Amino acid sequence: MLTMTSFVIIIIVYSLLFHVYGLQQTSSHNIQEASSPFPSDFLFGTASSAYQYEGAFLTDGKSLNNWDVFTHEHSGEIHDGSNGDTSVDQYHRFMEDIQLMNFLGVNSYRFSISWSRVLPRGRFGGINYSGIKYYNILIDTLIRIKPFVTLNHVDYPQELEMRFQSWLSPEMQKEFTHLADICFKHFGDRVKYWTTINEPNQQLILSYLWGIFPPSRCSSPYGNCSQGNSESEPFIAAHNMILAHAKAVTIYGTKYQKEQNGSIGIVVQTSWFEPISDSFEDKEAAERAQSFYSNWILDPIIYGEYPKEMATILGPALPQFSSNEVKNLKNYRADFIGINHYTSYFIQDCLISTCTTGYGASKAEGFALKLDRKGNVSIGELTDVDWQHIDPKGFRKMLNYLKHRYPNIPMFITENGFGHLQKPETTVKELLHDTKRIQYMSGYLEALQAAMRDGANVKGYFAWSLLDNFEWLYGHKLRFGLFHVDYTTLKRTPKQSASWYKNFIEEQVNTRDLMDESYIFNL
């Protein structure tokens, strides 16, 4: 029989137990609600490329590449007449830049190999061991920061253009395979993430359809070039790029991967294409736009065939894979795909419907007109950069689209960032207080987290870019960096976005730690 005192004690004990247990459950729930979908092995990094960063124009045995020649002979095509001769001089300043990465807390750095620095004449000459030494030192100095290496990011030895027109010839497959083999052999013991070619889909459009990137080949009405055929050459060059990628993957898989324990993929440019209306025609056009853009490359490297929409529209202009090539593509397919994503567009049908001329409206682009407005409604927030529209929802849609089209293939966001177009009146203070970049990154990283909760198998995110750099036709006037670069002194100065990205990464790590502690406490 309980006494009154005993009863009161029991009530107090039960109350305390309920209170502690309830707090524990609530705390755990709150942590889980606020939890990050990023696993402990997720890569947070920054991205760069050899021509845009390294400088050291003809230093230590490097030869002329296609962009060296283009920027010197056609400086008027560059917004500010500049070039990559010096750029941000990472070739001599990589130690400083690695310190900036350590400040950010990133655990990976994406960079590319300068083909003309390692193999100045391709197979027509020997290995430049000064170039090999540079990349060995860079990789060794990164230490805890994992190297994520792209074999080819647009630039290649000019001699290959002069000898056989580079990507228009099957000879380029042999050249690229040779480059890949050399890099796997010399760097693969420390590099666990490889990508073959950066944005072949975008490179093909700019170089062989519109002719505004070297080798400047196109035909009317797509562009004003002295040579080229816009309705055949992009697809010939793409075919050689895809087969070059496949041969590099095969070499890695058969000769190096088991011992080196790494992975290999490819990087494509993606944009979200939103049908401009709910009509069947515009929905079909949006799918065609994807097929003539990212799917153009991804379908062959994963499934061994081009998208059906391309085959239907292009007919014999689209090259065919041999049975052996299809077998090789399927047997040695990419371990992952890299996604460079910046923007979205509305898409209007031009195959069946009456359509104005413009980007995407042609046969070679799938009869799918790209627009930034639907009446008075823009596709996200428009910016001073005519192709960049801030649309995080489109990013989430893009990742879900890829998840469904290529199930179970891991993805890395290999580039994402905001470009600030510097005008004559723009001050350094304005460039450093880059609140628009923070808004952009915050929105896109939230969209990334949402897509991962939807089931998108994303393994890493790389901000473009660590530093302001040479941005192709924009020269040094378009600034994507988390760190500002004074192009006179080459001084690096952190922008507000650098601190924001640093804090974001720290928050993800701290949230995971809290989750781990909560899990242990609940055991």
UniProtKB/TrEMBL annotation:
One of its GO terms (molecular function) is coniferin beta-glucosidase activity. The keyword Hydrolase applies. Residues 1-22 form the signal peptide. Pfam families: Glyco_hydro_1. SUPFAM superfamilies: (Trans)glycosidases. Keywords: Glycosidase, Hydrolase, Signal. The active site is at 415 (nucleophile). It catalyses: Hydrolysis of terminal, non-reducing beta-D-glucosyl residues with release of beta-D-glucose. InterPro entries: GH, GH_1_N_CS, Glyco_hydro_1, Glyco_hydro_1_AS. It comes from the Eukaryota. Its EC number is 3.2.1.21. GO terms for biological process: carbohydrate metabolic process. Belongs to the glycosyl hydrolase 1 family. This is beta-glucosidase. It comes from Arabis alpina.
